[in-house]
Amino acid sequence: MSVERHIAGMLQQIAHQQDIVEIAPQGSAAKAAALAHVAEQYGYTYGMAYRTGFKNSLVQVRMYRDPRPDARVREVATITAHPQAGNGGTVPGLEQGSLKPLPKAVGAAAVLKDLITFDVMAMYVANRSQKVKGYLACAALTGLMLFDSSPVEAVASGGAVALLFTVAYKVGEIRRARISQRLTAAGFLAVRDEQGSQRFLRPGQQLPGHTNPFPA
After folding, report:
1. CB within 10 Å: which end of the chain, N or C, has fewer?
2. Higher-scoring residue by pLDDT: 45, 134
3. What is the predicted pLDDT for the residue at 210?
4. Nearest Cα to Cα of residue 41 among 104, 91, 3
5. What is the DSSP string of 134-202?
6. Residue 127: helix, strand or coil by DSSP?
7. Residue 51: pLDDT over 80
């Protein structure tokens, strides 16, 4: 899908003043973050992100309509400044015909990219139960290989897979910890959602409900 169609599709959702806007560009979290930044200029706020589609190839971002007065002021100002956005005109925060943020929007887009990446990585960061299952699978693999290979080969193969699991878990944990530090430094607050997963929210924001990211 072209850049123009991605932008136009998102702006059509926004034009209908939907409570929830879904963004799912093909490619990296950086593209999703760029579109999320545009949605923020129209009075939306980041809700959550996860992978979906064939082989989890898409980054799906959910934006919620912000009911606060300053969000509505921002929306009106954006519509006034970019009347042809989605129809070949300028788009707030992006270079013309591109998903590359303008210099003044680079910092905000980088924060959104961290939020998106942190949430998306949740499905790859193993908890204790997942780790136990992974190592049990390695043990089962070793047992199966004993029927066709020597004990040395079986143990070596099972050990190699277990090492790969360990390295993957650790790398994910380290990367997520670094993102967590950046978000905390940017003023975001760490919270736990209903499933016990860590999330980051702006001061004053609460975990999103079905249609309102600022429930009473």
Report:
1. C
2. 45
3. 44
4. 91
5. HHHHHHHHHHHHTTTS-HHHHHHHHHHHHHHHHHHHHHHHHHHHHHHHHHHHTT-EEEE-TTS-EEEE-
6. coil
7. yes
Q: Mean pLDDT across the stretch 199-211? A: 74
Q: Which helix (H) or strand (E) holds 38?
A: helix 29-41
Q: How far apart are the first and last CA of the chain?
A: 39
For the chain, the average pLDDT equals: 81
Paired residues of 52 in beta bridges? 58
Distance CA 99, CA 101 (A): 6
- Side chain identity at 12, as an amino acid letter? Q
Inter-CA distances, 25 with 1, 57, 73, 188, Å: 8, 10, 27, 25
Query: Which one, of 49, 45, 14, lies nearest residue 199 by Cα?
Result: 49
How far apart are the C-alpha atoms of 106 and 181, rounded to whole Å? 19
Distance CA 118, CA 201 (A): 12
C-alpha to C-alpha distance for 178 and 146, rounded to whole angstroms: 41
Closest CA to 66 of 37, 46, 48, 87: 46
How far apart CA 168 and CA 124 sit, in angstroms, is: 9
d(CA 9, CA 25) in angstroms, rounded, equals 10
Q: Tell me, what DSSP letter sits at residue 92?
A: T
User: pLDDT tens digits, residue range 120-173?
Assistant: 887 666 455 555 555 566 566 566 565 666 665 655 655 565 556 566 566 667
